[in-house]
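> call design_seq(struct)
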């Protein structure tokens, strides 16, 4: 897993300070300088609010959280129950269904759509199916098609 440093950043005197993040392993030891002439200034960011509507670290402030409905193969549902994808995760038993004779359980989250949400869904492969919103399901299908094409091009 990666660790990140969040805070106010200013790459040059010409640019305005902005809220940003740096992967800690990308910070070079020789590039760290003590800047005692620059006083500490809080970014004013409420990190609880920043991370609450997302999976991962990528947050688009103007985006709104949406309900993400997905099905999970029954044989791995215990894992999803014990380690939820997000704190907003809830079961929707009335929408459980069978697909090709395999039982799937229905869940829903309320999060913002970002790359980490897509990656999280893709990690479960055939065991997780996004059913709404349609745009997210189509994005995942597109990524899976690219993966299949890559495998088909291997000699």
């Amino acid at each position: 897993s990666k660790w990140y440093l969040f805070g106010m950043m200013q790459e040059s005197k010409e640019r305005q300070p902005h809220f940003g993040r740096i992967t800690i392993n990308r910070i070079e030891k020789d590039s760290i300088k003590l800047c005692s002439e620059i006083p500490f200034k809080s970014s004013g960011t409420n990190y609880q609010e920043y991370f609450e509507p997302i999976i991962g670290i990528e947050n688009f402030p103007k985006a709104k959280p949406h309900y993400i409905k997905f099905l999970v193969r029954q044989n791995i549902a215990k894992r999803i129950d014990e380690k939820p994808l997000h704190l907003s995760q809830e079961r929707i038993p009335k929408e459980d269904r069978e697909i090709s004779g395999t039982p799937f359980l229905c869940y829903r989250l309320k999060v913002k759509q970002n790359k980490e949400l897509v990656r999280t869904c893709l990690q479960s492969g055939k065991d997780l199916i996004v059913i709404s919103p349609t745009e997210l399901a189509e994005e995942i299908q597109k990524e899976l098609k690219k993966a299949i094409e890559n495998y088909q091009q291997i000699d």
